Amino acid sequence: MKTVEANETENLTVRKENIITFPLGLLGFEGVKQYVLLANPEEKPFLWLQMLDQSTQGFVVISPSSAAPDYAPDISQQDVEFLGIKGPGDAIVLNIVTLHPNGEATVNLKGPIVINRYTLVGKQVIPANVQSFSLRHPLAPLPVAA
Amino acid sequence: MLVLSRKVNENIVIDGRIVVKVVRTEGNFVKLGIEAPANVPVHRQEIYDEIQKNNQSALSAGRPPTSRLPGKKPARPDSKPGNSSP
Predict the structure, then answer these.
(1) Which of B31, B20, B28, B24 is nearest to B8 (CA)?
(2) Residues of B with CB under 8 A from a CB of A
(3) Among partner residues B55, B71, B82, which is closest to A141 by beta-carbon distance?
(4) Which of B8, B17, B18, B71 yields a CA-CA distance of 20 to 30 A from A9?
(5) Which domains does chain A possess?
(6) Domain residues of chain B, as ranges?
(7) What share of chain A in percent tops pLDDT 90?
(8) Distance CA A133, CA A109 (A)
(9) Over the stretch A76-92, which tens digit does the pLDDT of each residue have?
């Protein structure tokens, strides 16, 4: 089992069922092929996709069902075949969140991350209907206890 | 890079199955038609560049503390529980 330091005080034990392989990396980060997807129940619906490369770098990601319930990216046949996906149920879709310095957050709907839930192989894809989506879709503030 | 000169209505064939047609030109502007099998994605380059830049600005050096995430500020002591989260 590999151990990854998430920060100075926490050692994570990485289990292979959390490891996602991106044969092509992510756009702009083609050299990093392996990530670990972590969830803290207190942070739901946000997840943390961390590079498995000795760094602690990563991306906050979110399932689009939380941020954009009508989101319907049209994944190309080439990407479907690349990922070995047989139907929509095989796919986990996650979108990258940007936390802006002013406290606002936006989510990239143009370049979703699609993962085959059985093989844990993923790719950042550009859907055929990319023009319909925003690169910086605002995340509505989630309800905070008043 | 292979550089080919084409006139309007002339075509280029890539890999024997992707056809790029010069539909119209007007000054610096070229309208291209792309015929490709449905399984071949075709996009303007700017899309790749935009997503790459967005990834770069979204990258976090380390896992953000929970309080940094939208809607996850610690509740006030007199708050009532029960707001549902998505």
Answers:
(1) B24
(2) 38-41, 43, 47-48, 50-64, 66, 68-73, 75-76, 79-86
(3) B71
(4) B71
(5) 2-135 (2.30.290.10)
(6) 1-44
(7) 71
(8) 6
(9) 988 999 999 999 899 99
